[in-house]
UniProtKB/TrEMBL annotation:
Family: Belongs to the anaerobic coproporphyrinogen-III oxidase family.
Protein location: Cytoplasm
Pathway(s) the chain acts in: Porphyrin-containing compound metabolism; protoporphyrin-IX biosynthesis; protoporphyrinogen-IX from coproporphyrinogen-III (AdoMet route): step 1/1
The protein's name: Coproporphyrinogen-III oxidase
PROSITE patterns: RADICAL_SAM
Organism: Thermaurantimonas aggregans
Function: Involved in the heme biosynthesis. Catalyzes the anaerobic oxidative decarboxylation of propionate groups of rings A and B of coproporphyrinogen III to yield the vinyl groups in protoporphyrinogen IX.
Catalytic activity: coproporphyrinogen III + 2 S-adenosyl-L-methionine = protoporphyrinogen IX + 2 5'-deoxyadenosine + 2 L-methionine + 2 CO2
Amino acid sequence: MSLSIETIIKYERPLPRYTSYPTVPFWDAEHFDAEKALGVLRQSMLTKPDVSIYIHLPYCESLCTFCGCNRRITKNHTVEQPYIDAILEEWRLYQLQMPQPPVITHIHLGGGTPTFFSPSELKRLIDGIVGRHKLSPIYEFSIEVHPNTCTYEHIDVLADIGFRRISVGIQDFDPRVQYIINRNQTFEKTRDIIEYARFKGFAGVNVDLVYGLPLQTVESIKHTTEKIAELMPDRIAYYAYAHVPWKSKAQRRYTEADLPSAREKIQMFLSARERLKKLGYEQIAMDHFALPNDSMTKAWHSKSLHRNFMGYTTDSTPLLIGLGASSISDFNGNFAQNYKEVEKYLGEVKAGKLPIERGHLSSEMDKLIADYIMQVMCTGMVKIPTDALSKEHLEFIANQLQNFIEDGILTWEGESLQVTELGQLLLRNIAAVFDTYLFYKGLKENMFSKSV
Ligand code: SF4
């Protein structure tokens, strides 16, 4: 049974992206205790010292108007040194918490624009983080780059210090779309950076694309996918544009009339999906495509894909330390977020304090539901709950799952329910039926972007 556009539109509604559970708007900030969260970190490291590290580098030279990230726009590069100093100090403060030296499994530099920073500052950062610590045998260092600020020297230095995966922001190659989102980026510059990274030994090239941007059309998406065919990245993150003007003022520079309709958005996704499949890509979960040999494809097939605040990942380390302004740490399902405002972040670190502003300590029920939701989001398999959920929630789940089956979104495979290939686009909708916070508290206005 194929899924019609009408059926997909029927499920369009504001929903969480489930990069964590509970989702951030439902965190219980009032009862959060940073010391208890750090206690989980200490306890977990006693048995296994593996840690994954995310470092947020928030600066960008110019503002892309569609952007919903936590970023700071400036052309003043004197901000680099004090910011890197603060991250290294924050890392030192974390090490004081650790019962034994960490084994580093992953480092991911995200932003903002990590390549806003000079190659020498990035090298100072990574040298300071790694120090004399052990690296896991399967370690991976990865970085998000903007081709407009990424130089060959950046690639040389990153390759020398162990980076092997590069994630290139593209969004769209259509000049009209680039103009309205204020992100003028040539195909040639993008291609040169990717080719040079491959030449320098980067084994994984990811690109980020977005559908549903202002002025985008099915035709303009075809233009972009033909350009992608020339680049053949290993992975493509193909995100639905999240229209959240209440949160991101830059998005008010265009109106809703400039945005494609839900129908057009779905057509864009389906058109790109068809072309990418012909090129040999597989759709991975909700919004990724990858070549058969990529580790993400293998993780999808072996049902070992994971999801964290950066989105889908092959990283299974249960301890994620987030460094930098706004970063979120995940200590075995307990969350701690740093101050978002750069000055506040710098001030706390300077005062010798870990700059944690808020977070959430998960209950046993939270962990149980998180398990259901992450299984849906990362494997497309649905576990039928038989446990501690309330009778009314179980009835609601049963009804919703039946609707998904009737609409061709889920299908029985033996004893369990599995999402259909086109139903993968609606994984957020399936996951949401298990969300007890949504079930009992409901949605408030302007909480989440739309699911399609
Ligand atoms: S999309 Fe990236 S480069 Fe553009 S403003 Fe946002 S964080 Fe900066």
